[in-house]
Write a structure and sequence with these properties.
Elements (H helix, E strand, L loop, with lengths): L2 H6 E4 H26 L3 E2 L2 E2 L3 H23 L7 E4 H24 L1 H15 L5 H22 L12 H4 L4
Antiparallel strand pairs: 1-4, 2-3
Helix pairs in contact: 2-3, 4-5, 5-6
Amino acid sequence: MSEQSNQNSLVSMRTVEIAVALMFLVFAIVVMQGSIKLGSSWGSDGPQAGYFPFYISLIILISSSATLIQAVRQKELSNETFVDKGPFRQVLAVLIPAFFFTLSMQLIGIYVSAAIYIAFFMIWIGKYAVWKSIALGVAVSVALYMMFEYWFQIPLPSGSLINPLALVGIQ
């Protein structure tokens, strides 16, 4: 692997494999403990509630242990790049706004959040005109509102902090 690629490397394959194996180990142990509390043996009337989860988590525990041992032993994985800084920034450019969209959906509702989210991405990533972005964001939100609230009569999240649609008399 080239020296330039290693300089742009954010994290190595070995580090990621060790971290993921450790996370699965913890997950398996937690599930096994819960299964033991429920009963993980074979009862007089068949398997107890924790029987299958216990053995599935045992398989996960064994597999993740093998992965962890393999990742610790392989020194050449420390030179392999898992992700470079550039592609990771592109992932964060989508992930961070999606996180705030999810948060705002709980606070101000799905329709207003969707309009802001769509307009934001059209302006920022798509480089569209502001008025076109806002118009399309509002149009999509109105279409979603008509489809779910009016036609299907399925209420979607309207916001716990403030309900902007209630301010204009819609909800």
